[in-house]
Amino acid sequence: MDAPVIERDGVRLRPYRDDDLTDMVAACNDPLTRRFLDALPSPYTEADGRWWLTEGAPATWARGGAAYAVADPESDRLLGTVGVDRLVPMRGQAEIGYWVAPWARRRGVATAATRALTAHALASGLSRLELFTHPENAASQRVALAAGYRHEGVRRAVSPQRGGGRCDSIAWVRLADDPPGPVPRLLPDLPPGGLTDGVIALRPVGPDDVDLMYRLHTLPEVVANRVPPEPPTRAEIERRCRTAESSWLVGTAADLVVVDVTSGEAGGGLALRYDEPRTGQAMLGASMLPAWRGRGLLTRGVRLLVGWAFDTVGVARLWAGCRPENVAPQRVLEKVGFRREGIQRGRLPGPDGTRVDSLLYALLPTDRP
């Protein structure tokens, strides 16, 4: 691949220069950069930076890849890096990667640079570009979507971690004949401030919600509907909260917290799991701490989520299941308009190898009261 200077969408892709060294060392020692780029030396020294400028980047070009400095078109200051490497010539395939310096974040730099180099690489003859993100790096996943990369799956334990262990990577792919992006999302973001009816509000689950989510998902009536019916570990809940935004971005689930608008306290959880995108069907799940029950708050939350699912997401059918003896959620579903469609015999695994029944409720847009 040639090494022309590429300038578009407010960024300049150019070869590295010796005077990039200071900014490169500072950026590569940034905690967020180190967190998601385990292959970087830590600490990142001037010797590491000089090696990249004099040996690493030239070697990438020699292999047929690309190693660009991303610079500000006006000042020419280093803003980050973007490159293409790991070519598989027989497949016309390569991998694209990037990082952005802390002083240049939240300005669209990564998206602009990825779009620019993607267009150049595909125009130069590549057929397929792969982009890999850490499961907790939602910002990078947003870049992939904005640059036209589509979610392809998860590579389990593919990345060695600094300090030991291995980590999954989420795979995003752009083909030469794919639209340039952004990729349409199954689950769009909530409006600013979340969803609210003035009494309660729904907001996305995040890393700070571990205590609440652990309490909710270890309630006996919630555990009874889990598969298998065993309480989750705290580590499992921590991972769920850290990767909740990623699940939302790839379109599998929208995890939400129910918040009392007056007090600001959180006491419930709702989830929309897009289990059948091809048919427009999604599953609704809900739970509330005991102290929050009997006040109609869960019903309000379910109504808000139902409205968003039908009117914004475009879901065609919602369904929910619950144990026959769990009467309270059945009342909530019926208040919102869900209809009982039947009983699914032996649907769920029960304790000690048994099977338990599940009541099936469903709601169509025309069913809403």
From TrEMBL:
PROSITE patterns, sorted: GNAT
InterPro entries: Acyl_CoA_acyltransferase, GNAT_dom, Ribosomal_N-acetyltransferase
Domain N-acetyltransferase positions: 11-177, 200-366
Any one Gene Ontology cellular component term annotated for this protein: cytoplasm
Transferase among keywords: yes
Residues annotated as signal peptide: none
SUPFAM superfamilies xref list: Acyl-CoA N-acyltransferases (Nat)
One Pfam family here: Acetyltransf_3
Keywords, alphabetical: Transferase
Molecular function terms, GO-annotated: protein N-terminal-serine acetyltransferase activity; protein-N-terminal-alanine acetyltransferase activity
Name assigned to this protein: Protein N-acetyltransferase, RimJ/RimL family
Annotated organism of origin: Micromonospora pallida
